[in-house]
Amino acid sequence: MDKIRIAGGRALHGEVTISGAKNSALPCIAAALLTADIVRLENVPRLVRDVSTMRLLLEHLGCETQWEGNTLSVRAANIDLFEAPYDMVKTMRASVLVLGPLVARFGKAVVSLPGGCAIGARPIDLHLSGLEALGAKINIEHGYVIATAQKLVGAHYRFQTVTVTGTENLIMAAALARGETILENCAMEPEVEDVIRLVRGMGARIEGDNTEILRIHGVDSLHEATHVVIPDRIEAGTFLMAGAVTGGAIQVNRCVPEHLTAAIEKLRENECGIQTGKDWIRIEGPKKLKPSDVETHPYPQFPTDLQAQYMALMTQAEGTSTIHENIFENRFMHVAELRRMGAHIEVDGHLAHVYGKTLLSGAGVMATDLRASASLIIAGLVADGVTMVQRVYHIDRGYERIEEKLRGLGADVERIS
Ligand code: EPZ
Fold it and tell me: 218 C-alpha to center of ligand 1: Å?
């Protein structure tokens, strides 16, 4: 039950290096199930807890895994179990990403239904209807999805709603299906593109990169590959907002500025000074932050995973901004905690009206989910006095050593075990 203590009021300065993307590493690790050969994944955020959970799940299924620094090698040569148990899935709903690869390669997968989540119901109906379109037989028994198929067969499938892990699951399944699959209304997140690059490196035949229509020609088998996981654009965006809120000037290194175009545009509207290079972004927080409304949408628009952090930033803007959360129905859990720190925020369904600028005061606050905890840390950096963030296990799910990285930028932050 670690806590993170933040003494606010210091402007951040210096440089921070971004880790590999959690939301790419997870599906890339699952993709290793598609072959009996070794899959080497470089730039994997080793200290992110969800990565450990996914590695343990694959070992549970019979995989051999090995770390060398931030490189994870996985070999799914002796898979003897096809079940992702409730105890693992309940801690990380991304476990559902083993469904597509298992049923595609072995004709069988037994995966616990993920259940609800703090930010929304998050059903997986589109993952299942997509696999059914490829010929899988899907049964739900005792809280488990049982998917079976002699051999998946290519088909034409349109996602009713854009879904990131749904698209990734279907890409992996279709890669080993017989014939051609056309997927429409696909997610185009950089993490989806990263999975496409890995699976293509394993021998898959996929067309339509960076578009919402993917054409996948199934192959009989896939082979070994080495892949470098992309940097974490959400971690990068989190640090940019931390730099801006403190009125500091920081450089975020080893990131892909193009992956953050929508966030950079928004920060420029807030009057932040931003320069970008090949793999870095430099931000200077303005004397006065200008409010600007935002709407969350699938990539390439403003990501829902930066919504909470942006809200914390807007509490320090000179005026009112409206945040419209379109992706998840319950992703304002951080509002109550920000209010505890003195923020003035009114919620009306999917809209949150943030009345700035309010002086925040340090307080004991409770993290409710991964990105909500990041917003509380950002608020703590600018608050008067000490903020104590509890339940930081949420933040450890998606950030590597965040307190050390913030300290490297001059913040007065420490973890209290
Ligand atoms: C991924 O979740 C990310 N997780 C999430 O990041 C991110 O918030 C989300 O995409 C949106 O960008 C990983 O990549 C591991 P979705 P995912 O399926 O794939 C509805 C973080 O903070 N939907 O794109 O689970 C769903 O309810 C996490 O790192 C269905 O209705 O999200 C939601 O409203 C949080 N049926 C919308 O689609 C389905 O079968 C988008 O969800 C699937 C989804």
Answer: 26
- DSSP code of residue 93: G
Ligand 1 center from residue 12 Cα (angstroms): 32
Q: Which residues contact 376 (CB under 8 A, 6 or more apart)?
A: 312, 334, 337, 338, 365, 367, 387, 389
pTM more than 0.90: yes
The residues lining ligand 1, judged by C-beta closer than 6 Å to any ligand atom, are: 23, 26, 94, 120, 122-127, 161, 163-166, 187, 191, 304-305, 327-328, 370-371, 398
Amino acid at 351: L
Atom of ligand 1 nearest to the CA of 303: 12
The active-site residue, picked from 117, 186, 255, 272, is 117
pLDDT along the chain (417 residues), means of 10: 95 98 98 98 94 97 97 96 93 95 98 87 96 98 96 98 98 98 98 98 97 98 98 98 98 98 98 98 97 98 98 98 96 97 98 97 96 98 98 94 97 96
The sign of the CA dihedral 302, 307, 310, 316 is positive
State in Å: Cα 179 to ligand 1 middle: 28
Q: Mark whether 255 is an active-site residue.
A: no
How far apart are alpha carbons 183 and 243 in whole angstroms? 40
β-strand pairing of 386-390 with 364-366 = parallel
